[in-house]
Amino acid sequence: MLLSRLLAGFTRGQSDTLRKAMGKKQIEKMNELEVLFYEGGEKNGHPKEILSKIWEEWKKFASYAFNKSHAACYSWVAYQTAYLKAHYPAEYMAAVMTSAQSDIKRVTELMDDCRKLGIEVAAPSVNDSEMDFSVDKDGKIRFGLCAISGMGEAASLAIIEEREKNGAFRDIFDFLKRVDMHSVNKKNMEVLVKAGAFDGVGNMHRAQYFYKENTLETTPTYLDQLVRWAIRRQDGASSNQMSIFSMSEELAEEEHPPIPECEPWSTIDRCRAEKEVISTYLSGHPLDDFKYEMKMFTNIGVEQLSALERLADREVHFAGMVSGVKDGVSSKGNPYGSMVIDDYSGSYELRLYDEEYTSFKNFFTNNTFIFCKAMVRTSKYNDKKTGAEKSFTRMRIISMVLLSKVMDKYTSKLSFTVPLERVDEAFCKSLGKLARKHRGSVPLQAVVVDASRNLSLTLNTGELRVAVHDIIPELEVLPGVAAVKPIAKS
Asked: Is the pTM of this model over 0.70?
């Protein structure tokens, strides 16, 4: 703006118009000002070739402008953040995640970056979390309490202030005695439990908090009982009125409700609860129960399906958990459906039409684990408008089965390795008991190894046929077993 006034005698208004024209790429306005620039510049005695050089540079600048002061600031910030990421990676990533915590998709991407850097992102904890993402004493990034859906700033602050004042919470009962239950309500407590914020605080697991004595909708959960107990206790302690009962030495302090006994949540239930309140999985992934199936039988992650042209003329095998199911009928009366498939790599929306949808519509159910085989083909066609040849890539589903059935369907044998010195009567009895417990259709194969002589012997136990998916976790921990390996059908 200053140069246009000095070189070509532009008024302040004209120089501001030039700024706007350059910033908004108004070509017609730039052309009008170009004439004025040359006229004014030559009038001030400047050679036309010099004016032309300057104006052409300005036109380039108008195409993409980044002024010097901004460039200097951005360079300085880039240097600082690069230094912090290199020397304080956990603290740096915690700060970046805090700045993005309102955008959970961005937070999930940053969590993947943390894993690549070898930094663990841990679940929120009432004993370790701050308001925002932070680094705990073990070097892990802790989810902030405010990053949990349903936790407000007031509730988070009440927990942190009490912890800093009087130390870590010993268990849920210590927490409920000390934290102001008028600041932390029942909803806050529910989301804290689902997020895993009480894991490791005492000996209770998440399922116990939501335990009900019966299936009636009006029956309170154990957490409901605890919250009521805590409120009664705190309100009674804060009352200035003394009743005849409170004066009685025989009346002891009300005990907390007895802890119920129940089975812990399954991996999928735990992950589903985490997804609900922190929009991602932290303590595990629903597919963790199918780690062998994912490793052995898939050849791509579902995120790769977003670029089908790169998979042209390939048979692809992928698996995941179904979510976001939709179906309907087209204007021509043909059925169609879509499902979102989630795996470790990301998500992909699979759409099926007509006969293909009809063949596999039974799998269109949320929280179903599926395994798919498909063929990716590229077809050529002529554009009706231009006549030019174009290509179109699509995927055709060959088969779709439940992921829990994949091992039995596609495994020829289940092989395990055992040292010779560990094969005795006790081992054989334990193995037989395990095989009978998990009877199935896949033969069990033993590889007995004599390390001292560098020999191995493969034994096919044809009479022992097992359910592969069910037996693997227990076979891996059977004393003496060194390795377990499913062998895929050729």
From this structure: no
